[in-house]
């Protein structure tokens, strides 16, 4: 159900006016209850409007105003891409300084900067030549580094040759590694076919783009990037990464090679996939009704009675974080902090805006908002340059993925949560399309 709504968003943006579709989406999600926000975004956000709608709607209309004024969009796209690249490094350095000032784990902050900067650096370099090789290399390199660190930290109790001579001990350590990295969550997913089928349906937005794109390299990138997400999920134990990677990779292979299947094979695939869609839709509808019922009762909550996962606790987070930031407005509290003592019963901060403000203070938070502004303006300007269905569908797909990750992930808080990678990917692809058009104009085909 979630993915069907995301796919519907992609189709809608491709068929009607771009700005109208996006505006309607954010206006509706802003005033919808928590369950509908979950349905539209794929992420758990009860306070949808302050998290994402305000800055993005502002960016949309600002980009529209700039385009009407007749500014050189091509030059602006280059400048904004350079600015976003510089800002990502500046934000990372500022977080390192904030962490050092607060005397917390400096090594973790440096690690976050490395993990976050490497993909963006490769994206920046690959935008001029060998685009997709650089993008895929970013995923592969991130997965390799994560895998090496996790393995070294968890099983390097003995020298490597000891494990070669004693494979039983190696297998035991691997099992321990999976358990310590929340492997039980992965097992729980496979034990629940309904949950597995819902994650399989996350493939629809990407499949829609893969179907309409004419670039073979783009199709190849989709598969390789999802394979990279799958590897990351296996090493971190994140069920979202794992199921999204496996499910989308399998569905992508079937969809991409659909013409190669015989009629009987197509019938078998459709019949076998029907229960997945049925159970997923029915189960999601039942969960939706339950969430709507819970949301109606949320208005009777008192903030003082907030529990860890209630909607009232999300509102309490904004108030408590505001008080905490007032105490340390310049450098915040640094990376890798446990705020449960300050927030009493609130053990986890779900909003990445709040997390950024706590970790790096007001300056770091403003830099982060500036980065979001520049990035989305660049993507929107690219859409203005090439108002094709492919460009709009890709933007809607990246928007869907971005919103889903915004629900629970923290920017520059954990090394693997580089969800804005998808947003910059849209910028790079838009730049590649522009370069292709420039080459065609410079060397037009002979009549």
3D structure, described in words:
It is a single chain. The N terminus is likely disordered. The protein is mainly α. The protein has one domain.
Topology:
Layout: H1 2-15, H2 18-31, H3 34-41, H4 48-68, H5 73-101, H6 106-126, H7 131-155, H8 160-165, H9 167-180, H10 183-191, H11 193-200, H12 204-212, H13 216-236, H14 239-256, H15 263-298, H16 311-327, H17 352-385, H18 389-406, H19 421-442
Number of helices: 19
Radius of gyration: 23 Å
Instruction: Please state the average pLDDT score.
Output: 51
Largest sheet: none
Instruction: State the end-to-end distance.
Output: 50 Å
Which blocks of ≥5 consecutive residues have pLDDT under 50?
A: 1-19, 21-61, 122-147, 178-206, 232-249, 279-285, 295-311, 341-347, 389-394, 396-430
What's the number of domains?
1
Using the alpha-carbon principal axes, give the shape: globular
Percent in strands: under 5%
**Order of helical and strand elements:** HHHHHHHHHHHHHHHHHHH
Q: Tell me the total number of β-strands.
A: 0
